[in-house]
Amino acid sequence: MSNGAYLEILIYDGERIRPFGKLLYEAILERLVQLGAPGCTVVRGTYGLDRRGHIRDIHSDYTSTPLPISLQMFAPLEMVEAATRMLDQSLMSRCSVFTVPAVDAITCELKDIKMMTTESGSAYCKVYMNEEDTTHGRSLLGELLRVLRRERVMSVIVSYAIEGFGSHRIIRRPRLFSAKNGILILETILTSENAVPTLDILQPLLSHASGPAIIIPAKVIHYGKVNVH
Q1: Residue 83, number of CB atoms within 10 A of its CB
Q2: How many C-beta neighbours within 10 Å does residue 150 have?
């Protein structure tokens, strides 16, 4: 099983290194590239509380309202530790940072997933991909959703990222309002009952994703009824 860690850095997109300087999240992203990180994805929220406790939303004056930003990375533990050390005190004071153990969903052994979900009760799955990713000529996203529906997996969420980079260390920023070439994140919860059979089907598909697919041990408080027709 390929062990690693999931790192998430939470900041606000209006934050800058200094007045009129580079945006804070862009500076962190560039530092991760220089560090040799295998990849990082940036997601912007539509609502949130800023550091002063003010409610911010995307419907306000977009150029001046700080919206929440999440930088997400999966890497070997040593790289994640190096990334957190990279955030010096001046940056740390304006970020919230957390890490959790995670495994590579593509290369992990199903017996290890069975053990994980037996111990924790469930697993949180995240798949990073490009909108144009395909498998056997068909949309990868569409195929993943069909499998999850057939396996009666609930609560599947797909969201767009605003930018990121992968193994080529090139920061990619999809064009505003473009209907193509978007960076996508698929998230779902797998239970101890459906994790192994679902991943057994998903693993060949996940190898076609441009980014990583990861499994994080989780404990589900409630899992609603599935009603698939």
Answers
A1: 24
A2: 11
**Structural domains in the chain, sorted by start:** 3-101 (3.30.70.120), 105-218 (3.30.70.120)
Q: Are strands 213-218 and 55-57 parallel, antiparallel or unpaired?
A: unpaired
Is-contact 199 100, C-beta < 8 A?
Answer: no
State the residue for tokens 């994080």. 216
Q: Considering all CA atoms of the chain, what is the largest pairwise distance in Å, rounded to the nearest integer?
A: 55
Q: Per residue in 77-113, pLDDT tens? A: 999 999 998 887 667 778 889 999 999 999 999 998 8
C-alpha distances in Å from residue 18, one per residue of 27, 36, 182, 208: 11, 25, 30, 40
Quick one: which of 68, 73, 90, 86 has its CA closest to 18?
A: 90
| Amino acid letter, 218 | A
Which residues of the chain, if any, have pLDDT below 50?
1, 62-64
